[in-house]
Amino acid sequence: MAVTSLGHSRPGGGRRGPATGFRGRRLTPYLLLAPGLAWLGLFFVVPLLTLVGTSLQTPVTDGNIGDYEQTFRFANYADALQAAQPQFVRSLTYSIAATVLALLIGYPLAYAIAFKAGRLRNILLVLVVAPFFTSFLLRTIAWRQILGEDSPLTASMRWAHLVPDGAAMTASQTAVIAGLTYNFLPFMTLPLYASIERIDPRLLEAGADLYGHPAAVLRRVTLPLSMPGIVSGTLLTFIPAAGDYVNATLLGNPGTTMVGNVIESRFFRFVDYPTAASLSFVLMAAILVLVVVYVRRSGTEDLL
Amino acid sequence: MGERSERTSRGGVPGGDLVLTALVKRFGAFVAVDDLSLTVPQGSFFALLGPSGCGKTTTLRMIAGLEEPTAGAIRLGAADITHAKPYKRPVNTVFQNYALFPHLDIFENVAFGLRRRGVRDVAAQVAGALGLVELGHLARRKPPQLSGGQQQRIALARAIVNQPQVLLLDEPLGALDLKLRRQMQLELKRIQTEVGITFVHVTHDQEEAMTMADTVAVMNHGRIEQLGSPVELYESPATTFVANFLGQSNLLAGRVLQRGPMTYVDVSGQVLGVPAQRNRSENDEPLLGVRPEKIRLVHAAPGGPAGHDGRVNRLRGGVVVDASFAGVSTQYLVRMPWGQDLTVFAQNLDVTERFGPGTPADLVWEPAHTFGLTGDATAGADVDDLPLAAGVA
Q1: Is A219 touching B (CB cutoff 8 A)?
Q2: Which of B3, B15, B44, B381 has its CA 20 to 30 A from that of B314?
Q3: Is A207 close to B112, i.e. CB distance below 8 A?
Q4: In this predicted model, what pLDDT tens digit does every residue of B34-58 receive, in sequence order?
């Protein structure tokens, strides 16, 4: 959903192949759609149904660990939610916090690249994407060093009495949120840049000419016109951040685990497939509901 | 213009004249506006006319506050607004491509300036402005749903509703087709008379400038070539650029023979007269100019006196090389013995008096229609083909 909003045009309604005859022309769109649909069916719909199936399984009586039989035990969901409720709440809070932070950092950045960078524009855009050339894991581990006890950042913050002596910034809530913000910032910045860059600078001049103070122009002209970028940027940040467990694993402590960590450990350590599957499904449904409500409220359905 | 400058704008705010003093704008090494000084009387319709790149839009943007002058001053009445922020100037702009806010409906577009200033009766004032441009029924539409002409009028309403002391128009009719442009020219003029606000209109269309403006400043290379009423500019151009940019001119290189109330000039062996006060050239090698429609084409009368005969200027030895019939008039191209082609517009009054190509003909005109200039005969002739062509056709 979020990805389509980045595209400038929609597929379909284009030109049709020449001289294929009436039947051929009617079939063309379906033929073009077929590979995509097949892919989607095979690798999304089928696994999704398997997931739902797994989430309703129960252990085989007297069986080995990891032996489950297909039942329809909906209580699995209630059990799973009860067990992982704090992690669920944390996942949502952390990812919302990271999304807000990424927006606060990404918007001025995208605005500056679009309107103020001049010839540096392309270089800055490359710099936004550059972190992707390094592994996600390595970059996250690097934050341990940045926030570590002996790091220059921690030392200077301690000197400024922003953190108490001896307190570590790693293995904390702050570190997890910082990691999430950092890792998903490009996903926020690029869509923002794409939509800000499209704004006609003359509209900003018109705003100033019509007695709009710079803050008023930002609020009344720039922000509303960059709404599509804000919506797709926040979605592209929020959705993966909500399901992320790498940041919580590498930068957090046992008190900062997110729902992704629970799913991971249920699947691989406890071999508790039904709980892991039901948590996955609930997470997906929750994100979907939140996204739909958000898109409705931001009034940009036509832009998605 | 004198009585106009007494008037105050509709809002009752005495604005005062807009005075630009020694204004300079440089972009790097490029000088866009070069030591420009002019006064726009309050309540007048003033046009800045010139080819693209002559600095007219930059001048307008400096008045609007969208561009910072490199040097010089801008005063509006008693206030120095040279460095005032755009949102603090009692000046509004109608942008070239209208720059209507696409996310706001027409009502909110027009209300934008009023809301920013915290005006109370927004609804009534917006309704008034939309009424002025006769588009009140479109208040709830979005800009992309409107035609070009309608968007243009909304842009005008959005600026005028603020009752600025000066309204700036940046090529406001450039994107409209010819017929609509004509209609909007009349409408702009009507609205200007109605609201009495000072209009500064930037255009490259000489016809547009002449039909609407009280005063026209012709700009070239960041400087003002000549400033005056359309009639003044047309009848007595001060430079060859003005002579060629504003309408068409025949320019003849000559040498002064005798000075007096009438200056006599030798043009390739034929003597022509120009009244001394219409000769702006100081040196002895002026360019004599005459507008194509002032010339009468007559059948060659061999043996008669050549050049100025005491009453009229007469150039002998021409041969018609081209005659194009355009309904109301015929445009002739006449080749002179020295190889120059002169243009003559003849009104089609008499069907019998037509000259086909190859016909020998003499050119006759009043000395009072002649003007004398210094400089390059081709200046301004090739700067911008489109508006010139439009003016001729």
Answers
A1: no
A2: B381
A3: yes
A4: 999 999 999 999 999 999 889 999 9
